[in-house]
Specification:
single chain, 492 residues, alpha+beta, Cytochrome p450, four-stranded mixed sheet, 18 helices, iron ion binding, signal, Cyt_P450, Cytochrome_P450_fam2
């Protein structure tokens, strides 16, 4: 009798479960049936890029995933992503809560993970400061140029020995963020600076493991540290503590003159102006501290990884590297280093940078958005709180836009018949809409100045004459090439 009761109970459970899991016609279809509690989490491949391509073929440009307790909708194709993030930006510009954000103890502050009026003011002030530094004063270009010079010397010191230059590139791009925030750079062997870089690297490398906690928060409470939550938390708090000590020191010596050359001073001056004018403001120390964290996290790894990818492509396509070198030699010469003023003259180099960003697509799923209200998209009704993944790969690798060779490295696709640079609207490595990358202008300037100086002075060769490193990658917070060595040979 007991066995019969259990069988009946199980059948009732299955009937109820299947009834509750029936497709909701108001929502986009799902590629596979979700499981109880975990949803599609166990269906996710370690590398989601090919999996998402297959699911797009199966379901179309929009489909639903259930990740733990959250409904996640994936958007594919330029037209649909633009409709959501640009045309319906009011509804699609929210940001869900992520573990790496709350682990800082400053969850919901700053620019990247904030929402509502707080986000609008923080982003507006940060953008206006960056624009002021980039225009007129040209502070950004000067800071980058100074750092590039130090980086060139560090590469020269390698004396052509096979070396993995990823760490030194990370350090150099981090130094630009330091210079932007603090008005100063650090020596590459500074132990505190190296510790900061190491902890930032931990956040990037462990994102794959900790991401499950974003959808199943109770996993954080399990004994041990299988999902790396404790490791991530320790790194986040250590970084915040380091940045906070810097902020306290800077506050004691705020430069309130018209010659402000770092973000901390500029932010504090803007805050003081609003307070003195009796205006309500969200500008405060906690938000400034979180903006510092955001800029380090987002502004270091992405730029250095793009440079790392570009060099890997140059090893695999040596004829492209020589064409870039020839262009620089012809347009700039060898008697001076390239500057930002040369950018409009070096079309082929710009095309190489753009093709690197397009093909590498280092943030293929962008940063997750969230519906701040119920909204209709492509005849589907998405509830408030729905997580939105814009699949940038589906735009940057779209054969209908880039041709049948979309998965090949061909910079010429960005050059028109007159030799001028093309910039198709589908070229969106920084995403689009109100949540597009805050540091886009800074990143473009960095990539140009680093790579133009590198290809003018050095030739980059494989570690040995028997083959080139493969175009293989690993996934983390960004898509990073598998570690490889390169010989940096001075062209002089």
């Amino acid at each position: 009798m007991e066995l019969t009761t259990w069988i009946v109970a199980l059948l009732v459970f299955l009937v109820i479960y299947l009834w509750l899991q029936r497709p909701d016609p108001r929502l986009p279809p799902s590629p596979v049936r979700p499981l109880p509690v975990v949803g599609h989490l166990f269906s996710m491949a370690r590398d989601t890029r090919p999996q998402f391509r297959e699911w797009r073929k199966q379901c179309g440009d929009i489909y639903s995933l259930y990740m733990g307790q959250y409904l996640v909708v994936v958007l594919n194709g330029y037209d649909l992503i633009k409709e959501a993030l640009v045309k319906k930006a009011d509804a699609f510009s929210g940001r869900p809560q992520f573990f790496v954000d709350t682990a800082t103890t400053l969850g919901g502050k700053g620019v990247i993970f904030s929402n509502g009026t707080l986000w609008k003011e923080q982003r507006s002030v940060s953008l206006s400061i960056l624009r002021a530094f980039g225009m007129g004063k040209n502070i950004l270009a000067e800071k980058i140029q100074e750092e590039v010079g130090c980086y060139m010397d560090a590469l020269a010191d390698l004396k052509g020995k096979p070396t993995d230059i990823r760490i030194i590139t990370n350090i150099s791009t981090s130094n630009i963020i330091c210079s932007l925030l603090l008005g100063q750079r650090f020596d590459y062997d500074d132990t505190k600076f190296q510790d900061l870089i190491h902890k930032l690297g931990t956040l990037v490398e462990e994102q794959e493991m900790v991401s499950a906690i974003n959808f199943l928060p109770w996993l954080e409470k399990l004994p041990g540290d299988f999902f790396k939550a404790k490791k991530i938390s320790r790194s986040c708090i250590a970084i915040i503590d380091m940045l906070n000590s810097v902020l306290k020191e800077k506050k004691r010596n705020v430069n309130d003159s018209n010659d402000v050359c770092n973000l901390i001073d500029a932010y504090l001056i803007e805050r003081n102006k609003k307070i003195q004018a009796g205006l309500s403001t969200t500008l405060d120390d906690q938000n400034l501290l979180k903006i510092m964290f955001d800029l380090f996290g987002a502004g270091t790894e992405t730029t250095s990884t793009t440079i790392y990818w570009c060099l890997l492509y140059m090893l695999n396509y040596p004829e492209v590297q020589e064409k870039v070198s020839d262009e620089i030699k012809y347009k700039v010469g060898t008697d001076r280093v390239p500057t930002i003023q040369d950018k409009t003259q070096l079309n082929y180099l710009n095309a190489v940078i753009m093709e690197t960003q397009r093909l590498a697509s280092i943030v293929p799923l962008s940063l997750t958005h969230m519906c701040s209200e119920e909204v209709t998209l492509k005849d589907y009704t998405l509830p408030k709180g729905t997580w939105i993944i814009p699949n940038l790969d589906s735009v940057l690798h779209e054969k209908a836009t880039w041709g049948e060779d979309a998965m090949s490295f061909r910079p010429e696709r960005f050059i028109d018949n007159d030799g001028k640079l093309k910039n198709p609207e589908q070229f969106i490595p920084f995403s689009i809409g109100r949540r597009a990358c805050l540091g886009e202008s800074l990143a473009k300037m960095e990539l140009f100045l680093f790579l133009s100086n590198m290809f003018q002075r050095f030739q980059f060769l494989p570690p040995n004459p028997y083959g080139v490193p493969p175009l293989a990658y690993k996934t983390s917070a960004v898509v990073i090439p598998q570690a490889y060595a390169v010989r940096v040979v001075d062209r002089k």
